[in-house]
Each structure stands twice: as structure tokens, then as C-alpha cells.
What we know:
CATH class of the largest domain: Alpha Beta
Strand content: 5-15%
CATH topology of the largest domain: Glutaredoxin
Structural class: alpha+beta
Number of domains: 2
CATH architecture of the largest domain: 3-Layer(aba) Sandwich
Number of helices: 7
Number of strands: 4
Radius of gyration: 16 Å
CATH superfamily of the largest domain: Glutaredoxin
Distance between the termini: 10 Å
Amino acid sequence: MSFAPWSKDAALVVLATLRDEEGPVLLALQALQREFGYVDKEAVGLVADYFNKSRADVHGVLTFYHDLLTSAPGDNQISVCVAEACQAVGSRDLEKQVKAKFGDEVHDGYCYGNCALGPSAMVNGCIIGRASLDKIAKARR
């Protein structure tokens, strides 16, 4: 997946599409991440100013949602669901194995709506049901 390089001007274009949305902070952070692959530290002030919110409000949203990244992603983005249903079928053990093998590529995930096929993982935007270390390794680039 290829992302645009971060720039304030490009970010303002993204924010302009959300001008009339309700609850724009989360939507704005998600849109910026879709465009740039992560939410740059400069975006906190930019989003706050654009939507007349405090920097603390924007920072709170950014740090609450684990799927929002604050640094550029590597070639692979891997997350293992650690919500309750997946934990019940071993996702915490799977997460430890995946982190041991792939390190910084791995992040916690929270419910992909694939509970019936847990444990679930996401590799580069693709959901994997009944995830295993082998399935995750094969899905990497």
C-alpha cells in the first residue's frame, strides 16, 4: 500500500472534505491516516484549529484509538485482535508468537467483526480468520 507524503497543504485538502461532518475529529484522524499512512504530530494542532477543538481533545482521540498510528508504517502492518472473543480462543498467545517473530510490525487490534472465526488478525488491511503464525507469515509482503 502506497501513501502520499505528509504535507500540511495536502492534509488541509483531506480535512476540507469533512467540514460539515458531525464528530469530525475521529473522522479527520482516520482520513489523514488513510491518506498518509499515519497521523503526523503536526496534525494534532491542524485538526484542532480546523474544527475549533482543543489540542487536548484531538490528542485524546488520537491516543485512545489503537488503530491510529503516529509514525509512518513499515512495509507490513500486522495486528492481532485482542478483544474478548478472540482472547477466549487464544489470541494473546498468538500475539506473543507474532510479536516474537515480526517485532515492530505488530500492533494490538480490537475487533474486526470476525468473532466467529477467531482468533482474527489483520495483515496489510486484509482480515485473517482462524489466524495462526503460519497464515500471518504467508500474508506478509
